[in-house]
Amino acid sequence: MSPAAHLTLTQRDLAILLMAHAYQGVTVELVRRRHFASNGARSACYTRIKKLISADYLTSLRLGSTSGVGSGKAFLTLGAHGRSVVADVLGLSVSELGRSSRMHAPALIDHHLATADFHLSLELATEHSSTFRLVDWTSEVELRQAPMKVTDPLTRRPITVIPDGAFVLALPDDTEQGFRLEMDMGTIPPKRLRTKLRGYLAARVKRSTPILFAVPDELRRAAINRWTLDEAQRIDADPTIIWLALQSDVTEDTLFTQPIWQVVGGPVRLALDVVAGEETATSHQRGEHLIVAGGRR
User: Fold this and answer.
1) Over pLDDT 70: what percentage of the chain?
2) H/E element holding 191?
């Protein structure tokens, strides 16, 4: 009898499998933050994950060590039994789930996990927020299926822009606002990033959606701030669509409530819930509905 036959899946197990699918691969730490948050639950998390791996509900890939000493994190994706279970829960065929993540390059894994960390912080922040509700999250894989294309105002050539994620927040009155996420690891060369920034700035003419850049350090934030201002001046665009925050400052406790976001060409720092409160009050006076520029209902 297979190990899966001896394991009775709990509701939490199902939630873990669905998370591994939705995030296209997770670490044990991400699972622990989401589903074993209570004090002392670390051991229980590792024990349960081990059983799910043994029963082929999850597959574990040991990543290389970032320090060069010891072993790295375990990267978890759906195993054969896990894919069958998730397909059944979602009402899909196994083939419709898409391929399990097969990322092996450390740089890509680091970027993926940084994006996953933001995604989880966003989910947890909205669950504890009295201001925001998370309506939707769209992954980079999904965004690649219908990439945003704009004409470069300088070269007249097409620019294809694919964010690392996109999400929609809503207020209690159902006012909605979309955001795009750029998880910048400091590896994209200046010329290439300037082109992408120009694409976002040019696209604002059609749709005003804030672009949230999560960056690795202050030097990178200063550089992107400068490049955005330069490109906005070159094409006569408004740079305030670009918002910058340090990756280390983005957590479920700070994402909405702390002034971690720098608006290029705008406020030095702002907090999302303060902006939402001010803008919503103003919009109600005008009979409109928005969170920030470009909001929709």
Assistant:
1) 84
2) helix 190-203
What is the C-alpha to C-alpha distance for residues 4 and 54, in angstroms, rounded to an integer? 8
* Whether residues 144 and 229 fall in one domain: yes
Could you tell me what percent of the chain has a pLDDT over 90? 68
Give the structural domain span for 117.
108-286
Mean pLDDT computed over 11-16? 97
**Residue the block writes with tokens 């479920």:** 252
Contact 232, 240 (CB under 8 A): no
Tell me: do 193 and 219 sit in the same domain: yes
- The DSSP code for 277 is H
The reply to whether 136 falls in a domain is yes
Angle between helices 106-127 and 28-35 (to 10 degrees): 0
Residues 112, 141 contacting (CB under 8 angstroms): no
Token pair for 9: 């899946």
Residues 86-127: tens digit of each pLDDT: 999 999 998 888 765 555 556 688 999 999 999 999 999 999
The tokens of 166 are what? 């996109």
Residue with tokens 């980079």: 140
Residues 54 and 126 grouped into a single domain: no
Residue 169 burial (CB count, 10 A): 24
Torsion angle of alpha carbons 263, 268, 273, 275, nearest 10°?
-70
Q: Are residues 131 and 263 in the same domain?
A: yes
The CA distance from 224 to 164, in Å, is 17
pLDDT digits (tens, 9 = 90+) for 283-295: 444 333 344 443 3
Same domain, 280 and 137: yes
* Number of domains forming the structure of the chain: 2
| DSSP label at residue 269 | S
